[in-house]
Design a protein that fits this description.
By secondary structure, the chain is α+β, with helices and mostly antiparallel strands. It has a domain of 152 residues. 14% of the residues lie in helices and 16% in strands. Strands 7-9-8 form a three-stranded antiparallel beta sheet, with no helix packed on it. A two-stranded antiparallel ribbon has the order 1-2. A hairpin with a 5-residue loop joins strand 8 and strand 9. Helix 1 packs parallel to helix 2. It is flat.
């Protein structure tokens, strides 16, 4: 996520524009849902009080706008190959994002972004017009989306379907698809492989795992024999048979194994499993953070 707390004004220099409505709505919703500690997983301090709380280091503050390359690289650069593009905050979009976060139910972990593509907006906007090149969303103007290197009408943007080309290192294919490539820049969107098929980028269809031989297999259930942790659905093979990993507050298992939702930590002279932020909290926070990029 690239959402600056301070951005350049029209001339790309120094104008400070607040993102407080977004930060306040985000903090209040996550705390309301009992997920305040989940902020730590994203590198932000857990809020004791939402008044004055900020996302801090998650919000870069480039004073001179966003850099645009000539096709030889991405990100920041120097010399004649890059130019600083002025960026500014779309305050109406920030308010819109805050209102949508306010309306999120704690049990709703839905895909981010509005259902109506005409309602798309980005809180950070740049000077590029429809049809002009972009390397990041922040390069495009109000109401446009950076798609495959071009600022485009959001209603014309669709995720690649099965069989469509995809950019291996940036684009995402549609649901239940993966970008299959030979480590080159371009690949083809393909269905996730099932049991017995070669893994794609280490991934398999839901319920299957990728083996050491690069082939998808059905993992063993608790009580079934195993010779390695990866062979088990629980990812824990302590003594030749699959078993549930140690629960929170129990000593860590072999190779620091702990049950899902917990992690092995060193306390004094022992290692013990301690609860981490529930995956539902992480999913909620990730969804809310994505509003800043995709709503």
């Amino acid at each position: 996520m690239i959402v600056p707390a301070a951005c350049g004004g029209p001339d790309g220099q120094g104008e400070i524009v607040s993102l407080r409505p977004f930060e306040q709505a985000l903090c209040e919703k996550v705390v309301e849902c009992g997920c305040g500690e989940a902020f730590a997983a994203f590198g932000a301090a857990a809020p004791l009080d939402c008044e004055g709380w900020t996302l801090g280091d998650l919000l870069p503050t480039p004073d001179d706008g966003y850099y645009y390359g000539d096709g030889y690289g991405y990100g920041y650069g120097d010399g004649d190959s890059y130019e600083a593009l002025p960026a500014s905050i779309d305050e109406q979009c920030v308010e819109r994002i805050a209102r949508r976060i306010d309306g999120v139910d704690c049990d709703m972990f839905f895909a981010s972004g509005p259902e109506d593509c005409r309602e798309y907006c980005s809180p950070v906007i740049g000077p590029r017009l429809e049809g002009q090149g972009c390397l990041a969303q922040e390069h495009c103007g109000r109401g446009l989306r950076c798609h495959r290197g071009v600022c485009a009408d959001p209603c014309a943007v669709q995720p690649p379907a099965e069989g469509d080309p995809c950019e291996s290192f940036s684009s995402q294919c549609g649901d239940d698809l993966v970008c299959a490539s030979d480590e080159s820049e371009w690949g083809i969107c393909a269905a996730l492989p099932g049991v017995g098929a070669p893994c794609i980028d280490g991934r398999c269809v839901a319920g299957a795992s990728c083996g050491d031989d690069g082939v998808c297999f059905e993992p063993a259930a608790d009580g079934e024999p195993c010779s390695g942790h990866r062979q088990c659905a629980s990812r824990y093979c302590p003594a030749g048979f699959c078993a549930s990993a140690p629960a929170p507050n129990q000593p860590c298992g072999a190779n620091d194994a702990c049950a899902p939702g917990s992690e092995c930590v060193f306390e004094g002279d022992r290692e013990v499993c301690r609860s981490t932020a529930p995956k539902e909290c992480l999913a909620l926070l990730e969804t809310l953070l994505e509003f800043a990029d995709s709503y």
